[in-house]
Amino acid sequence: MIFSVQARVDTASKVDPSDGRSLWQDSRTRFLRNHAAIGSAVLLLLICLYALLAPVASGWSGEAIDWNVLGDVQSKGRPSMETGHLFGTDELGRDIFVRTAMGTRVSLMVGVFGALVAVIVGTFYGAVSGYIGGVTDSVMMRIVDILMSIPFMFVLILLLMVFGRSVILLFVGIGLVSWLDMARIVRGQTLSLKQAEFVEHAVVTGISPLMIIGRHIIPNLLGVVVVYATLLVPNMILYESFISFLGLGVQEPNTSLGALINSGASQMQYGTLWQIGFPLFFFISTLLGFFFVGDGLRDALDPRDDQ
Amino acid sequence: MASYIIRRILIGIPTILALVVFSYLLIVVAPGSPFAGERPLPPDVLANIEARYGLDRPLAEQIASYVWRIVMDFDFGPSFAYQDRTVTDIVLQGFPVTLTYGFLAFLVSVLVGVTLGIVAAIRKNTWLDYLAVGISIGAQALPNFVMAPILVLVFTLWLGVLPGGGWQGGQLPYLVMPVIALSTSFMASIARITRSSMLEVLNADFILTARAMGLGFGRIIFSHALKPAMLPVVSYLGPTFVGMITGSVVIDMYFSTGGIGQFFVNAAINRDYPLIMGITILTGCLTVTFNLVVDVLYAWIDPRIRY
Amino acid sequence: MYCLPPHIVLSFLAVCMVVGIPAETLQAGSFHPETGEELSDNRTFSYRMLDEFPTLDPQLNQDSEGFDVIRDLFEGLYNQGETGNLVPGVAERHVISNANRTYTFHLREMAKWSNGDPLTAFDFVYAWRRAVDPATASPYAWYVGLSMISNASKIIAGEKPPTELGVTAVDDYTLEVHLKQPLPYFPEMTTYATFFPTHRATIEKYGIAWTRPENIVSNGAYILTEHVPKEYHTRERNPYYWNNNATFMEKVTGKVVNDENLALTRYLAGELDMTGVPSGQYPNLVADYPDEAKSVPILCSYYFAINHTDSAHPALGDQRVRKALSYAIDRDVIVQSVLKGGQYPAYSFTHWATAGFRMPEIDYMKLSQADRDSIAKSLMHEAGYGKENDLKFTFIYNTSEAHKLIATVVAQMWKQKLGIEIELVNYEWKTYLDIRSTQQFDLARAGWCGDYNEASTFLDIMTTGNTINSGRFSNAEVDLLMQEAKKQADPQSHYSEVETILADEMAIIPVYHYASAFMLKPDVKGWPYDNVQKQWYSKDLYRVKEM
Asked: Under CATH, which number does the domain C297-516 receive?
């Protein structure tokens, strides 16, 4: 469930910050030439559209029970145009077309916001640590080492039990599990950026360290950060599915892809395969999309792979 | 190097201690009593139980005596939920099981993952590459709580070749499905990491030189390219290991293997304080150790890294 | 494999003969002595357990799956028969004296421990004192208090030493019990684990590890031979059991399978002889396996607690709103379309199959659902809440697939029929208990299983101050009636009156009466289908040759 993005981002990080503009242009050209990445970006866009529009387009709401179907889901709950349940219904006669959209929305939100939390905390922490350097740097990095030794999944389970379950805690909890790698990468980048002329120039003119970090360091880290974030999103979605499996995910009647897949998986031996099939399709497509886009971005930002 | 290892071990001790205090506080503030049930216990009965486990004493004293007993007698206390066993009994029974299938799954994922990755890299942009990438992404995106019931349906019910669960001291037929279910997603990540780092190494100058000198392709791969290409893979082993323990929650639940993962989740649900603490400390120690091993391994592979 | 060291497997027969297993039980082609059915050569039975049991110590046990095992390993004064009737166990008979306050049990002299030690009345005295001893800290100590044995409650509170407990061994085979006040069902209470004898020497020697297969000494029809927590355990015939000749099953295995659907897969693959039916699957399984899918009533009621304290939504203080909520639930949909396992729609609290209990006449029970719905709507209207009423209640339940289904369906019924918004909140079990017992809810899912087979095990809960009464319902009339009922020879009229008050006040919302749906291999016989507390003993089971 845990994927190292650090190792992969390392290769993307050999960016020469003094030559920003042409580099970004090159990268864009490279990215546009990558068919898998473009295709995936389009796929993700379509999935987002579906997640937003499906509840409006369908006559059913995600929580309404189709009383005609309830009790005989195996035959009446099949996907069909007649009943209006394009993807069929779940074991309670609720429309899967709409519920999958709801679940996709929640999973995407957990993924994106979780990654955002990780990226924000990690970037800021790493930039400060790397820029200030010296004792502060080594103390801050030792703290990261210590935190890395904590079995975080276990702590997250405890946290969800202590503070009750909420989507917010899920974002924050999952995000906080993942900011450590980010902090390390950003610190490394910052160390090399510090040597760059424009930073030294800023130091000489007497701009405050915080301003330098905000104005000069972080914008130049954006490339790495974006790549890392893209690769983090699918991890977050997988984390969430595990949490849902443990029954600690979002509250009914809301749902997530992980929760839908989990309840679909428990029914699959009784022949209601549409209950797992459709959510699983969107789950895998979303992950695939993020993987390829992330790979594409990384390749695009890494000039050495350009042959 | 030696001093580095000693320093890391020394830093591990306060880490574990902080983990103990943090987890203990977290559990104690968690709502719900370990002894609550559908029928609330009469106050006298509850008082007797709390006195027996020392829960009537002040919190600081509880933590201190908990740590003291571990340090002096290596006594992790009795389990609240499993009254016939101590925490040590449970860990001694469950941990070897998790370790066995975890280690095997680890081996399988590294061997198969690295092979797949190398094949894909060597045959870049051929059908073999696409197949390998396709398999690995598919495997990565299929959660193991979906994989596990599918495996049981196929191998136990339809083919009737493997037992649907149990451990029986780790006999081969009982091992197959847990190892497959646990290894696939890690195998997939390792394959993808290997592929990209192998591609990078194959484009490096020293490999190009070697090829120009007319060295055999197989020889180049195994005696020159493999070692540097393994660097990112090695850095991924730490997270993999932690993931194996987390993943064992699902494995234990579906295959009744009696491993430590499910004991943890149940301990958290039951508010079995000593058992939660025991397993958290165990995984904390293992994570510290494993991160250290990985770092040392890293230094061995890449002599440029100095501590 | 209790009777032989593992390295001499070949001499299995010889070794076992020495220990004294009757030869005929090992022969093939025998017949059941009572029914005359031809017995199968297969004398093993395996069943699915949902989870690992917390303990095998009879005095500490409070778990039903643990009790399934303990009932086989240990035997108390009496056992439960096919219908829950009393069957002699270690006691052959008892005499009641002293105005129904003294019970004298005469124990059978043949009873032995699994190590050959004789089983005496002193073992019972030891075990019962142990149950109430504060040092044992048994979570089930209150059960002894409930049995009215003199001084039990004072010993639990630490006010008297355990030796003061009202139980004495007159001689090796006579046990005398003194009660604080008469309790007609005292002998029935001795069928529970807390009152089983335990072997003092073993407990003192091994401490908490005394229940391990290598240490345990027990007196039941079976002994524990293997146990791997969270995986499985086996129990095998105890050659020292006094009625060993009448035992058929040689070996019983309990396998832990958490997931009910997976358990069914493994049952169908032949790895289990018995497993529960996953929720909602009973009709399909009856169609496919008519000889194997069973559904029998068990003594549990599912209901929604209503918060009657100030922390609840004020609208719930209105009896009409409470009634409307209950009337608007289409219980037939829940029972027939969601659960589908042979459950009964409930309009009153006490389970319909409770011994000696006749279902009272509850007014809304006989109406059609359409009538109930329209009454519900007009009740809401009378109470001043129209279709657009902005009522929003919090409904809490503990995390579980089945509870989730029911909560979701009922919330939709209330929303569509009465326009009431329901906020569903689920908590994992321990948090849920915390929230519920501190009344931080409007409506809460609850269930109750009878401790014993008599209506007061349900109705006592509705009295003021009962800790299980989590909605804190309080009604002076109910309290009085329940108190009076204890003194009646036939308390039925009191119970009917209480149920009527509960329905009129809508103290709780009854939803359904449980049934237990399970799969059992067709050749397994002797299952006590009519025991509504589902207390089965492996010693009563046997397998017949398949036709």
From this structure: 3.10.105.10
